[in-house]
Amino acid sequence: MSTRKPTKSTTTTPAAVAATVAPIAKKPQFAKNSKNVVLEEEPTVVVKKPTTTTTAPTKNILGKRREQEVVEKVVEEELFEDDSSDEIEEGDDEDDGSIDEQDDEDDEDNLTTGSISTYGEQDSSEDDDDESEEENIEDLDDDDGISGEIPSKYSNDPNQFYDEDNSSEDESLVNRIGNVPLHWYDDYDHIGYDVDGNKIMKGEQKDSLDKFIDQSDPNFWRTVHDKVNGKQVILTDEELATIKSIQRRQFPAGFDPYKDWYDPGPNPDSIHPLSAAPTPKRSFLGDINDERKIRKLTIAIRKGWIKIPDTSNEEKTDQDDEIKRTKAYDLWAPKTEQEVEEDELLQRTNRRISRIPAPKTKLPGNVESFNPPEEYLLTSRELKAWHMMSPARRPHNFVPQKFNTMSDIPSYNRSIREKFERCLDLYLCPRVTNIKKKPTDVSHLLPKLPKPQDLRPFPTHEEHQFNGHKGRVRSISVSPNGQFLVSCAEDHTVKIWEVKSTRCLFTLQLDDTVSCVAWNPNKSLNIIAVAYENKVVMITPKLYGPVQNEETEAMFPKTPIPPDQKVRWYQLNKDNGIRVEVEFEFKIKQISWHYKGDYFSTISPDDKSKSVRIHQLSKRKSQAPFKRSKTPYQVSKFHPSKPIFFIADQNIVKVYDLSKQQLIKKVTIGSRWISSLDVHPSGDHILVGGYDKKVFWFDLDMANVYKVLKYHSKAVRRVVYHPTLPLFSSCSDDLSIQIFHGTVYSDYLQNALIVPLKVLKKHTASSDGLGVLDIVFHPTQAWIFSAGADSTIRLFV
């Protein structure tokens, strides 16, 4: 085995790789009797990098990937051929070739040119392909200006496989970690990985003190932190100008937003359609929406809603307009007949455009004469006083003078000034002819109402007073025939009075304060509902004898009472007249009867989920069919003749149809807190009173508030309609009872007539500021009962 010491190249180029090859451990062997050389065992080659540094290849070689691959392939084959040493058997020289001295000389020539340095011998039988590849390498070197320099296979630069133009955009990037959110590496000491899989460590983190010191830098205001590369970047003037343009929503400097469109010229392929489908029929038809518009316009023109101007008179109108523009207009000239007709036409069309009349001047007097009487001439003392007076206080703006003849009169020295003032008056003259004067007599603005004397009967004075309660009287109710009156007070008592004699016929003592009493509206039923605390009791007083009539006894059957968890019914039949007791979970505030007398409703504001309940007395059943309201319910009322139910919370009145079990209307009255509600006998109007001192008359057919009555100075406690007469009333804590006349007409086009009639004020004030707490009309007479906080009940007739 022959060995050869390596010889270093005389020159070291940036693209050359200096390698030192160790001695071969084992010889390569070739098969005999074969025309081609076959390598049976690969040689062991050790390549060591030299300690000398090499420069990177030029950008031209790096930018051309195809040429780089060719060079790398040739270098690998040449290294393998130069480093291998082999022995050729005898007799095979003709077929396989041998190593001759000429090949050694070629190798030495290659080494001297700086290609590579190797151990071993080179096979002299190289293929034609290798020779052609060497020629290609020489051609590439000649083209790129590199003489015998072969670049290394790979380097650490990730841009080595990309063209220079493609990598110019990312030249500023140092950390090529890709499009990865940096907050993923908040808990790590690195910010990603490079193309070789090595960690990219984070830069030095600055604390608050370092950031404060950096403010002393004059370029601190234009320095930004690059989170990806971990460095500070100073913005240039061009970059700052670009940022300002973005903030102002402007184009950057040098950018032309209105650049001419590039016209590439006719395209020869444009004759070929994108689709060979036939043209659809809808492309020849008009749009449906346009057809509808045309149809509507045609109908409007035929019916005369739209008038098409006559084009034949356009030329004449243009000539008339031109004449009007060029013709001088005399402002003070008298009107012609044509102008008078035009003014009348304009007045009929409510345009109110007319000529401004000339102002009338005051006629001259004797003092302005050229030969005035002696008494109008000023003496020297008066002339001195005239000059000392202010111009506004002078009786005349000139000094009277006397001339014997008119030829002695000089020219007027204030003519120019008066002409100027005249022009100034015309300039400042207001261009309004119709000046509305404030009427001195406002009586015609008031509505024409009938006199109260013509609207009798209505209560005017106090007739009787019912005394007997020791506490505030909370509620009162009248029997259907008007013969008896029931009342309840805070002294835990319920009393029944005879109206004509004011005699107390019945007294019931209960365990707690009574909040409400209501007499059954059915004339054949002698039943009174009393509510105190969380209980409601039904009383049948023995006013007409010890035995009740059949209709009343039929309302209290002896059938077993069905159990209920929240509402419990008890059959008592006590001697004091209590027949049935109904127990609730919460306190009862108000009771309202149905006009037939079998159903009644209760209100419990504290029970938020089921505060309104409807009960049937004959079957001992209770139900809560209404949903929960946003605000607690305050009052409820049945319709006088229909299965309609009214409920009012603090702000809204809801109208329900009980037969259909649905909500009919939802009315927002406008009151801050509703205190009471009543329904007109016709059922088409409701009266609402509120704690905000207002009374609202609401028309259900018109769905709006017809009248808002503000006659009280304190909270309104109760509002009520008269059952048969056109009267309604309201009471308040200001101790007043307002009586109104309210006529509802059958003609829907005519509004209701509301007339204030009388103010009744007989109750006295209590220590807690309460006044009249409840009122109720007599069923047939124009009488009204009132209950006050002064423990008295009064009758006004």
TrEMBL record:
Residues 64-76 have a biased composition (Basic and acidic residues). GO terms for biological process: maturation of 5.8S rRNA from tricistronic rRNA transcript (SSU-rRNA, 5.8S rRNA, LSU-rRNA); maturation of LSU-rRNA from tricistronic rRNA transcript (SSU-rRNA, 5.8S rRNA, LSU-rRNA). Residues 44-59 have a biased composition (Low complexity). WD repeats lie at residues 466-507. Its main location: nucleus. SMART domains: BOP1NT, WD40. Keywords: Nucleus, Repeat, Ribosome biogenesis, rRNA processing, WD repeat. InterPro entries: BOP1/Erb1, BOP1_N_dom, WD40/YVTN_repeat-like_dom_sf, WD40_repeat_CS, WD40_repeat_dom_sf, WD40_rpt. Residues 185-459 form the BOP1 N-terminal domain. It comes from the Eukaryota. The keyword Repeat applies. CDD domains: WD40. GO terms for cellular component: nucleoplasm; PeBoW complex; preribosome, large subunit precursor. Belongs to the WD repeat BOP1/ERB1 family. This is Ribosome biogenesis protein BOP1 homolog.
